[in-house]
């Protein structure tokens, strides 16, 4: 009955897919990115209930004023900016150390899967390297897409695709 257990994640995705459109956008996102003061106050009321949120709203306005001169950069602009090279180097070192400390078990499992698929032993390290490169590519691509479209649309679309795939998988297993 493992396919029934697998379908539970599809059920959760379906529930999230159904309810996500009814949740408001993040108040800081509405105010700072969209410039929608009225929408920000409405989102605060929806999320936190009725009340006086002028202190929080004023804090967000101050933060918006403080960051008004700064430009929101995409991933490529951040990589090209020399003022953030030190921070990027530290982040890269941290990510590399996480890969080397054993937290990334996917490399071990991919090798076993490729052996089970009867790939030649000499090709398996290169295919595993390809998997890692595709992960890096997808992370870079996804962060660029998030910058362009926002998190809410991508979450909604991702849950929809995940729910559809799991429904298709469940139907195919039953047939």
Description:
Helix 1 runs antiparallel to helix 9. This protein has 2 domains: 69 residues, no CATH class; 73 residues, no CATH class. The two termini are 14 Å apart. By secondary structure, it is an all-alpha fold. The chain has 9 helices and no strands. 76% of the residues lie in helices and 0% in strands.
Short description:
The chain is mainly alpha-helical.
Give descriptors for this structure.
flat, mainly alpha, 0% strand, 2 domains, 175 residues, 9 helices
- In terms of DSSP E residues, the strand content is under 5%
Poorly predicted regions are: none
Overall 3D geometry? flat
Count of alpha and pi helical runs: 9
Q: Between the first and last Cα atoms, what is the distance in angstroms?
A: 14 Å
Query: What's the Cα radius of gyration?
Result: 22 Å
When the domains are counted, the total is: 2
Count of DSSP strands? 0
Overall pLDDT metric: 81
Which helices and strands occur, and which strands form pairs?
Layout lengths: L1 H18 L7 H7 L3 H12 L5 H13 L8 H6 L4 H16 L5 H11 L7 H26 L1 H24 L1
